[in-house]
């Protein structure tokens, strides 16, 4: 089942049929520990329509967005490369092999954009890239109940200058995109699930790449367990799980670039740099 947050309310999708749930608040609905079962019962008493949801908003209410880093070997390589001038290259190798994962705060809800909205690159950065990531939705009780697509916009030159600059490289207005929906499932996604990134400039693809979840070093459940240590999330939380697709060092985003991230069970998240 899929949940969409739109300008006019919440829409559920099941078996190619759509159900308007406009009497519900997003936070109250998604924070349920048995979300899939609740939605399944709910749509039985709701009239269906063929009309697809329009004017999509990011599938987030008051939840925080957190992120995990160096969960793919490709990410470890890229961050070692960008930091070698600052002498911090082996820092990321140690993180990759450590027991404790790297977790960091990514975004408050007001900095998150949704489908077809504009993401941003920092004015004081010269080397920015998108990071396509499977994103978990976790209930207040620590259960993974949904999945969406995330774009963790990153300023590689700022982070590469010093690892302590990570918050400035990662956390700024419109630095995070989520969407197009929240896929509700009690089952984990297959390790064969693909995450594909395409960047278009002037209508022409200037970069494309893909990875699969089997390339992740850490299990989603492991990341969640560490995130919820001594942390509470009254309305649940989103967790970006890291990227395994990194453009080459010669590539940097420009204003006007179109970023397309596809994870087949969820859909495609499209944003333009602006």
Structure, explained:
The chain has two domains: 2-57, no CATH class; 64-273, Fumarylacetoacetate hydrolase, domain 2 (Alpha-Beta Complex), CATH 3.90.850.10. The longest helix is centred in the N-terminal third of the chain and has 11 residues, at 73-83. It starts with a strand and ends with a strand. It contains seven helices and 19 strands. It is of the alpha+beta class and 274 residues long. A hairpin with a 2-residue loop joins strand 1 and strand 2 (9-14). The strands form three sheets. Strands 1, 2, 3, 4, 5, 6, 7, 8, 11, 12, 14 and 17 form a twelve-stranded mixed beta sheet that branches. A five-stranded mixed beta sheet has the order 9-19-18-15-16, with no helix packed on it. The mean pLDDT is 93. The relative contact order is 0.21.
Biggest sheet, in brief?
12 strands, mixed
- Report the structural category: alpha+beta
| Uncertain residue ranges | none
Arithmetic mean of pLDDT: 93
Radius of gyration: 18 Å
The proportion of residues in beta strands is 35-45%
CATH homolog superfamily of the largest domain: Fumarylacetoacetase-like, C-terminal domain
Give the SSE order as H and E letters.
EEEHHEEEHHEEEEEEEHHEEEHEEE
Distance between the termini: 32 Å
Shape: globular
> Which architecture of the largest domain per CATH?
Alpha-Beta Complex
Query: Helical stretch count?
Result: 7
The total count of strands amounts to 19
Helix content: 10-25%
What top-tier CATH class of the largest domain fits best? Alpha Beta
Structural domain tally: 2
The name CATH uses for the topology of the largest domain is Fumarylacetoacetate hydrolase, domain 2
